Amino acid sequence: MADRRARPLIFAHRGASAAAPENTIEAFTLARELGADGVELDARRTADGHVVVHHDAHLPDGRLIVELPAAALPPSVAHLGEALDACTGMVVNVEIKNWPADADFDPTEAVAEAVVGLVARAGWVDDVLVSSFHGPTVERVAALDTRLATALLVARADLAAAVEVAAAAGHTAVHPWDPLVTAEEVAAAHDRGLAVNVWTVDDPERIRELAGWGVDGVVTNVPDVARRALDGQL
Question: Does the structure show a pLDDT above 90 at 1?
C-alpha cells in the first residue's frame, strides 16, 4: 500500500510560479521559503544530451530546445542538476516531457535514460518522483532504475482506467488533473496501492477538500496559500 500521510505534501508547480518565473532556480528557492514540501518541474533534452528544465519544447523566441546545445540556451534555463541542488531538502517531481505530439518527441526514450542517469549520479534517487503523461516513458524510467518512484500523469482520460494501468505497471502514484478527482477515485487508487498527487490546485477550499479525502500531494502555483490552508490559517 502507498504510505498515507496525515496531510498532503505541497508541491510547488514549476516552483513558486505565481511569484517568480516558472521553472527557474529563483522559483525553486522561493518555493522552499513559502512552505513547499516539494517542487514539480519539467525536463527536456538538448542536442548534446543534457537535461534542462523547461515546460515547452520551444524557447520563447521559437528555437527548439532539442536542436540546441545546452550552452546556447538562455541563462534562465536551468540544467536539471542545478535545479536539484536548488531543491535540497525538498522532494522533486521530475515530469519528463516526451509526448508524441511534441516537436522533440523521441520514441527511443533518450530523455528518460538521461534523467535516470543524472538523478542517480546526483544521489537523488530517494527524493525524486519521476512522472510523465507518456506511459512508455515512465515505464522506461521504472525499468532503468527500480529504486525510483514513478507516476502516471492523467489529464482527460478515465481516471479509474488510468489507476488500473498505473497499478499494473508497478508505478508508485497517479497524478490526476484536479477536475477528475473525487473521493471515490482517491479511495480506489489507494486500494490499488497508489499515491494520489493532484494538479494544479490553487483554491484553499478545494485544497482542504482534497486533504480531507486523503490525497497524498497537491501541486499548486501558490505553496504559501496551500500551506496556510492546510494549517487552518485560511
Answer: no
Q: What are phi and psi of 173, to 5 degrees?
A: -150, 165
3-state secondary structure of 131: strand
Residue 133 · residue 153 · CB < 8 Å: yes
Q: At 97, phi and psi to the nearest 5?
A: -90, 105
Q: What is the pLDDT of residue 5?
A: 60
Nearest alpha carbon to residue 210 among 167, 176, 162: 176
Q: Which three cell numbers stand for residue 5?
A: 500521510
Q: What is the three-class DSSP state of 38? A: strand
Domain architecture of the chain: domains with CATH: 9-230 (3.20.20.190)
**What CA–CA distance (Å, rounded) separates 230 from 218?**
11
Spatial separation of the C-alpha atoms in residues 228 and 58, rounded to whole Å: 35
pTM over 0.90: yes
**Identity at 179, one-letter amino acid code:** P
103-116: pLDDT as tens digits:
999 999 999 999 99
Q: Average per-residue pLDDT in the chain?
A: 96
Biggest CA pair distance of the chain: 48
